[in-house]
Specification:
By secondary structure, the protein is an alpha/beta fold. The chain is built from 10 helices and 10 strands. A hairpin with a 3-residue loop joins strand 6 and strand 7. The structure holds zinc ion. Zinc ion binds next to helix 4.
Length: 299
């Protein structure tokens, strides 16, 4: 089966051809205006389509984006600070050029689907995929399906109990000290005395950051009861000690819930992704496969 996945990111757009679990070819474009970006991506898809018919396309997009398939504006980017992208009709632009099935979901829901199908979330139908990089986002699977609801989860913007004595105001332009405003890349640059890469893993400045991540994990455990929380993204990849710190603090924050004596449980619960940066494009291919299968059922 020839599937195409498009990961639409804030700075780059990754277009892949392949099948579930197999990226055969990949092309990367800069994310410019919606028209420029999608024209470049879809010109590439057209070249591939001329070689072998593309059966379905999956799009893993930055948010906020309408993911409810029944909505009139399904596949449209909603109000975003990213210049030119508010109201961009991504799905419609793809369907204008290709009449195969197309599915759109968030980049983090797609990554959650990929880790569930192929990576660290295998066997866990209820999981959370977090990415901590220039922003903080979270995709949620319940019984193997991405949670959409009235929009989609916006885990990055929850506000949590702060570490005692921590007075950092946070950098989120909307909320100040939401979790994205506390521990994503720009927050670390603002709150640490040197750039994060120059601060050793044992520096005391990491204590409050680890606490903040643990508070987020505690809320996710208590509200969603996930079987796994997979944490990727540039910050998490480069600072693996943060996962270890948060995992260690988490039982204390849960204060007796979920049997904190069971170290193996927490070791399994909190883990890095196994697909790395490919979780997004791999997830876009999973979306494509699901779109293609849905079309066959209708036929
Ligand atoms: Zn926020």
């Amino acid at each position: 089966m020839t599937l195409v996945g498009i990961e639409l990111g804030g700075t780059k757009c990754i277009v892949v051809r392949g099948d579930v679990g197999n990226i055969a070819e990949r092309v990367v474009f800069a994310t410019l205006t919606p028209e420029q970006t999608l024209r470049a991506a879809l010109d590439q898809v057209a070249l591939w389509h001329a070689e072998a018919p593309v059966e379905a396309i999956g799009i893993a997009s930055f948010g906020p984006v309408r993911v409810n398939r029944e909505a009139a504006d399904y596949g449209t980017v909603l109000k975003t600070p990213k210049p030119g992208w508010s109201g961009a009709q991504v799905l419609a632009m793809v369907q204008e050029r290709f009449d195969c099935p197309v599915a759109v979901d968030t980049d983090v829901n797609a990554a959650a689907l990929a880790e569930h199908a192929l990576g660290a979330g295998r066997g866990c139908a209820n999981l959370v995929y977090l990415t901590i990089g220039t922003g903080l986002g979270g995709g949620v699977l319940v019984e193997g399906r991405p949670v959409h609801g009235s929009l989609h989860p916006e885990i990055g913007h929850v506000r949590l109990r702060r570490a005692e004595g921590d007075v950092f105001a946070g950098v989120c332009p909307f909320h100040g000290d939401c979790i994205e405003g506390l521990i994503a890349g720009p927050a670390l640059i603002a709150r640490l005395p040197v750039i994060p890469g120059e601060l050793g893993p044992h520096a005391p400045e990491w204590t409050a950051v680890g606490h903040d991540l643990a508070e987020l994990l505690a809320q996710l455990v208590l509200t969603l009861s996930p079987e796994r929380i997979i944490i990727g993204g540039g910050v998490a990849n480069r600072q693996p000690h943060l996962l270890a710190r948060a995992r260690k603090i988490l039982p204390d924050l849960l204060a007796g819930y979920l049997d904190p004596s069971d170290a193996a449980y927490f070791e399994e619960l909190i883990c890095p992704p196994t697909l790395g940066d490919d979780a997004g494009p791999m997830g876009a291919l999973v979306l494509a496969a699901q779109a293609g299968a849905g079309n066959q059922r209708q036929a």
